Amino acid sequence: MPIESLSSEICIGCRICVDVCPEDVLRFDEKKKKAYIAYPEDCVACWVCEWFCPVKCIVVSKDPARPAVPDY
Fold first, then answer.
1. What burial letters (b/e) apply to 46-61, b meaning 16+ CB within 10 Å?
2. pLDDT tens digits, residue range 24-72?
3. CA angle 30, 11, 38 (to 5 degrees)
């Protein structure tokens, strides 16, 4: 699984990771006001969520993932 963890203790609920994920792996829990990993099997290890997280609460594996499907 390319996306290893998302720490809800550190997450500030900014939604940046949800907005930038190209594979729609992350979702936002409106009740808890935190992001969470909804579809880990869809992660392609692009590291965009990890790079953009302002509090660095996301860890993505360095292992290769499934290839991304190109847009048509």
1. bebbbeebeeebbebe
2. 999 999 999 999 999 999 998 999 999 999 999 999 988 765 666 666 6
3. 55
